[in-house]
Automatic annotation (TrEMBL):
Protein's name according to its UniProt entry: YheE family protein
InterPro entries linked: UCP037692
UniProt source species: Planococcus massiliensis
Length: 67
């Protein structure tokens, strides 16, 4: 489970898509860049179970950003 999930626009011009995401997963702080095509570029070390984490991030972004 992701804890303390946060996201913010990557660019000051909010018309340009892209977000910085950060969260804790298995007691590690993880950060990454979430792109409009759903790809994620990890800024920190890639988390364990990366595919499962990506799925959780996609669900959260759909709920918070695209809804």
């Amino acid at each position: 489970m992701l804890q303390h999930f946060k996201f913010k626009p990557m660019f000051e011009n909010r018309q340009l898509p892209g977000w910085i995401v950060s969260f804790f997963y298995k007691n590690e702080r993880i950060t990454g860049e979430y792109h409009p095509d759903g790809s994620i570029v990890w800024v920190s070390k890639e988390p364990q179970d990366a595919e499962q984490v990506k799925t959780m991030i996609h669900e959260l972004m759909l709920f918070h950003v695209y809804d």
